[in-house]
């Protein structure tokens, strides 16, 4: 259909460490869950919150490497992919459906956002210990390439 668009952009937190597996071809596949939340005040002035969980599948080899090496439970990420529903059968032969955000081999974007709002991923202690001076505000990975992040130390550790 001409004039349609299938594009999903999310900013949220990882609910668990990414799960990495390999296809028979050796290509990596990453599965992860992202939580997005919205808050508002109801008519009584009480704070309300709603959290949505999104299943994400990464088929892009470069993004899979980044997810495997750097993403951890609780990290804030931005991602961009396509909304897809797949059909499968459970152990009893019943049809099941899964709706996922998919980052394809040649498409998709994944950006690690700092948990402290600095734009840099947290250090090994969960805090931003990469230093405070940066020419870039975020570590980002797009499609088949990537741009390093917050400091010389971080740039030396990222293999792209």
UniProtKB/TrEMBL annotation:
Record's keyword terms, sorted: DNA damage, DNA recombination, DNA repair, DNA replication, DNA-binding
Q: Which residues bind DNA?
A: 53-59
Report if keyword rRNA processing is assigned: no
The annotated subunit structure for this chain is: Homotetramer.
Sorted alphabetically, which NCBIfam families does this protein's record hold?
ssb
> Sorted alphabetically, which PANTHER family does this protein's record hold?
SINGLE-STRANDED DNA-BINDING PROTEIN
- Which named protein is this? Single-stranded DNA-binding protein
Instruction: Write down the species.
Output: Neomesorhizobium albiziae
